[in-house]
């Protein structure tokens, strides 16, 4: 078995993939698949550089630029991480993960734009209301929310990660409040409220989830230290697809083996699937055209610069002032 490239793998199994899964593809999936297969080929043209001294010439094919392509967007990924690092505060950070039960995944798949938007609204709204009512915070928090649709094994599993700096600014912007101890909110209480809000929102949107649904949904709320590790984890899948070239291990012409890291044990694991199935595991995570998978709220929102500056002033964060020349 040889170690394949992603483009070669997609092209090799294009026919069986389309034959098996073509009826499940929308225009966005087909466009993404076509872009990934043609990435860094003559289809998108080429760039040439020539050294003025030695006249050495180098030519490379252009990338497709599609946000779901694992070979593209590394620059955008780096820029997002740098912007988030510039907002980091000297406080403890918390990562809150909202998931929906397996029974809702079919509904999400057939109505992705509406379902994902409701997940954002309900997850963020739940966190903000908990902060306003918390007797220690009792104010406005900042949040960065990211939508993921995949597990590490690449199965379909939509969930929203919310990064929350540990603290809130009061309604009048007069002081900074911090949570008590090492905990932010009760994960059980978050799950109860999130479940109720999602069901009400789905009903209002005319989307009917299957019945019966589990009485308990899963929300994880944990302290993640400075926030840097959580940002790095989330940034991996923002602009570079759901799998990297280095994860591909082998391709024997019928099946593909790729590596992933188990979320619980942290051990490196492998998974082997048919070639057509492997392509499907990647393409199924293409988001609706124009849908934003990462959003900022509260004093971390792009339009809340003044509030963020006030928070930084409260926390004595050095502020770099850029003077236009």
At a glance:
This protein has helices at residues 6-12, 14-21, 27-38, 74-86, 105-110, 112-133, 187-204, 228-235, 275-283, 305-314; strands at 46-50, 57-61, 93-99, 143-150, 156-165, 168-169, 176-177, 219-223, 248-251, 255-261, 268-274, 294-297. It is an alpha+beta fold and 325 residues long. Strand 4 (143-150) and strand 5 form a beta hairpin.
Structural commentary:
The chain is 35% helix and 20% strand. It has 325 residues and is of the alpha+beta class. Strands 8-3-5-4-12 form a five-stranded antiparallel β-sheet, sandwiched between helices. A three-stranded antiparallel β-sheet has the order 9-10-11. A two-stranded antiparallel sheet has the order 1-2.
What layout of secondary structure does this protein have?
Elements: H1 6-12, H2 14-21, H3 27-38, E1 46-50, E2 57-61, H4 74-86, E3 93-99, H5 105-110, H6 112-133, E4 143-150, E5 156-165, E6 168-169, E7 176-177, H7 187-204, E8 219-223, H8 228-235, E9 248-251, E10 255-261, E11 268-274, H9 275-283, E12 294-297, H10 305-314
Antiparallel strand pairs: 1-2, 3-5, 3-8, 4-5, 4-12, 6-7, 9-10, 10-11
Helix pairs in contact: 1-3, 2-9, 4-8, 6-7
């Amino acid at each position: 078995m040889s170690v394949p490239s992603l483009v070669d793998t997609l092209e090799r199994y294009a026919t069986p993939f389309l034959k098996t899964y073509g009826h499940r593809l929308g225009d966005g999936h087909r466009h993404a698949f076509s872009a990934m297969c043609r990435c860094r080929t003559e289809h998108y043209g080429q760039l040439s550089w020539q050294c003025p001294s030695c006249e050495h010439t180098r030519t490379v094919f252009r990338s497709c630029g599609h946000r779901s392509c694992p070979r593209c967007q590394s620059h955008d990924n780096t820029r997002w991480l740098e912007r988030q690092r510039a907002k980091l505060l000297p406080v403890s950070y918390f990562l809150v993960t909202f998931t929906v039960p397996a029974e809702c995944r079919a509904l999400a798949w057939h109505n992705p734009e509406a379902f994902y938007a409701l997940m954002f609204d309900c997850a963020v709204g739940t966190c903000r209301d908990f902060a306003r009512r918390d007797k220690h915070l009792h104010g406005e928090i900042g949040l960065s929310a990211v939508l993921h649709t995949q597990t590490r094994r690449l199965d379909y599993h939509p969930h929203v990660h919310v990064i929350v700096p540990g603290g809130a600014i009061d309604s009048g912007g007069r002081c900074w409040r911090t949570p008590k101890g090492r905990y932010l909110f009760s994960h059980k209480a978050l799950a109860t409220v999130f479940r109720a809000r999602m069901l009400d929102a789905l009903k209002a949107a005319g989307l009917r989830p299957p019945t019966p649904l589990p009485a308990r949904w899963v929300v994880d709320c944990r302290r993640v230290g400075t926030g840097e590790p959580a940002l790095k984890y989330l940034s991996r899948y923002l602009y570079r697809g759901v799998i990297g070239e280095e994860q591909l291990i082998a391709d024997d012409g019928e099946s593909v083996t790729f590596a992933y890291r188990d979320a619980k044990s942290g051990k490196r694991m492998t998974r082997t699937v048919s070639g057509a199935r492997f392509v499907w595991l990647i393409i199924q995570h293409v988001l609706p055209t124009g849908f934003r998978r990462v959003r900022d709220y509260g004093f971390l929102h792009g339009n809340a610069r003044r509030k963020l500056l006030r928070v930084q002033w409260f926390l004595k964060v050095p502020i770099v002032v850029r003077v236009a020349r």
